[in-house]
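Note on ligand handling. Small-molecule inputs were canonicalized before submission; formal charges were left as drawn, and no protonation-state enumeration was performed. Where a ligand contained multiple stereocentres, the stereochemistry in the source SMILES was retained. For fe (ii) ion, this procedure yielded the string shown in the input block below.
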Amino acid sequence: MNYEDVTFDCFMSLESKERKKILNDPELLKHPVKNNLKQSRYDHSLSVAETARDLALFHHVDPEKAYIAGLLHDVCKGFEKSDPALLEDYLNFYDPDKLNGLTGAYHAWAAPYYLKEKTGFHDKDILNAIYNHTICRSKDRLSLILYIADKREPLRGIIDDIIKIARKDLYRAYKILGWDVERYIKEVKNERFIENRL
Ligand SMILES: [Fe+2]
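Structure output:
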C-alpha cells in the first residue's frame, strides 16, 4: 500500500485495518494531512504538533495526543479559500449556531465533524482541542496546549515569553494570548464571540 497517496477523500475506501493503522500512527497520518494542505500550512501543522508535544511533556498530558492534535488542527483551513461553502455546510448540518460566530473560526469548528465523517477518527479529547483551537472556551489541558502551540509555534517568528510561561502555567499563558485575540476580534474585526461547545 502506498501511504503517500492517501487523502481524506479516499480514506473510507481503504480497508478497515489500514484505516486503523494510519489513524494510530502519526507518521502515516501525516500523508493525508499533507495532501489536504498547501506546503506552508502543512509545515505550520508539523511545527504546532512539535510545540504541543513539548508543552504536553511539562504538564503530564499524553504527548502523542498533543502531537496528533497539532497535526490535524488545521485540516479544514484550506477550505476557507478553496471551498468556504463546504465549511458552512458542515456547520449548518452539525452545529448551526456557529454560523453566527467568527468566520475565521469556521475551519476549527468544522474540523471535528469533517474528521469524524472522512476518517472515523473519534478521540474526543483531540477533537475537542481542535474545535477550540481558534477561540478557546475549554479549560482542559490539551485544549490549552493546542491553543498556545498554534499561536506560538516557532515558524510564526514571534519572540516573547509565552512558551516559557506556558511550560510553567498553561492557564496564565492562555489568558495573556486570549486578551490579544479577543481585542483583535472586537476592535479590528468588529465581530463577536459566541459560546463554544463541541
Ligand atoms: Fe493553526
